[in-house]
């Protein structure tokens, strides 16, 4: 038993090492004094972080990405929750077909989705601005994540809560917002977190639908890497690693990541 336990510990340690080693490499290169990304880094400097905070182009793209992500996450959470509630209540024979349709963005390659959206919005040229094209597109590809997490919470929800609320005189609208939605709050939050990550990280779709006014942060990073691979990229990556770790810590403390499923 001790031998088996030692192998298990060694295997888990190897998995953790493979997952964390790339992050450690990125963080180490962010403090290098060289003008190129090298590992191990040479010297120690904070100049790349200073440039990261003062670069106007990256800051503008970052704010645009956050704005688009927030709007698309809101749309995805509203629509995804409504669809999940319909799946939960409906006994229609077509439910399986609709589930397959709404969850299809997960399995369809992103480049195919990008071409499809490009052709779709070409039919409505002049109706949507470039900004809203991205928001609506991102909301569609985020829907499956919200539907999966909310549906998982609804699967174990007892309908007697809603019945008791209606019997006590609450309207269906009041029951929805004061009984049903609070019960599936964890699923909605989980779907919002995953959706925000998907929207903020998306780079393929923006390549097909971008304009001069809609250069998002991932696309700005990609363009910068193709031209000049300096430790500025590592500095931005380090900042986002820290931000992601902080968000996960807060979610775990306040909600519990394991309870989102």
TrEMBL record:
What InterPro entries does the record tag this protein with?
Answer: MetI-like, MetI-like_sf
Q: Could you tell me the superkingdom of the organism this chain comes from?
A: Bacteria
Q: One Pfam match, by short name?
A: BPD_transp_1
Q: Which GO terms describe its biological process?
A: transmembrane transport
CDD domains, alphabetized:
TM_PBP2 (cd06261)
The annotated topology with respect to the bilayer is: Multi-pass membrane protein
Where in this chain does the record put each ABC transmembrane type-1 domain? 62-251
Alphabetized UniProt keyword annotations: Cell inner membrane, Cell membrane, Membrane, Transmembrane, Transmembrane helix, Transport
Q: Where in the cell is it found?
A: Cell inner membrane; Cell membrane
Q: Where are the transmembrane segments?
A: 62-88, 100-122, 188-208, 229-251
Main localization of the protein? membrane
Query: What are its GO cellular component terms?
Result: plasma membrane
- Give the similarity note: Belongs to the binding-protein-dependent transport system permease family.
PANTHER family according to UniProt: INNER MEMBRANE ABC TRANSPORTER PERMEASE PROTEIN YDCV (PTHR43357:SF4)
Name of the protein this chain belongs to: ABC transporter permease
Organism taxonomic ancestry:
Bacteria, Bacillati, Bacillota, Clostridia, Eubacteriales
């Amino acid at each position: 038993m001790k031998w088996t336990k030692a192998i298990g510990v060694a295997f888990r340690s190897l998995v953790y090492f493979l997952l964390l080693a790339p992050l450690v490499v990125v963080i180490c290169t962010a403090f290098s004094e060289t003008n190129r990304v090298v590992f191990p880094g040479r010297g120690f400097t904070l100049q790349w972080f200073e440039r990261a905070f003062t670069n106007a182009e990256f800051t503008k793209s970052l704010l645009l990405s956050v704005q688009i992500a927030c709007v698309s996450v809101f749309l995805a959470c509203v629509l995804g929750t409504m669809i999940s509630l319909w799946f939960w209540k409906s006994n229609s024979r077509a439910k399986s077909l609709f589930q397959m349709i709404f969850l299809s963005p997960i399995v369809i390659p992103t480049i195919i989705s990008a071409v499809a959206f490009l052709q779709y919005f070409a039919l409505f040229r002049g109706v949507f601005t470039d900004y809203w094209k991205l928001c609506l597109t991102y909301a569609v590809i985020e829907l499956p994540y919200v539907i999966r997490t909310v549906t998982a919470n609804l699967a174990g929800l007892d309908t007697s809560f809603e019945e008791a609320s209606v019997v006590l005189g609450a309207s269906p609208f009041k029951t929805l917002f004061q009984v049903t939605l609070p019960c599936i709050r964890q699923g909605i939050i989980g779907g919002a977190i995953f959706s925000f990550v998907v929207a903020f990280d998306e780079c393929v779709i923006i390549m097909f639908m971008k304009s001069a006014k809609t250069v998002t942060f991932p696309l700005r990073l990609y363009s910068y890497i193709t031209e000049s691979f300096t430790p500025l990229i590592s500095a931005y990556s380090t900042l986002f690693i820290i931000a992601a770790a902080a968000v996960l810590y807060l979610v775990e403390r306040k909600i519990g990541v394991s309870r989102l499923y």
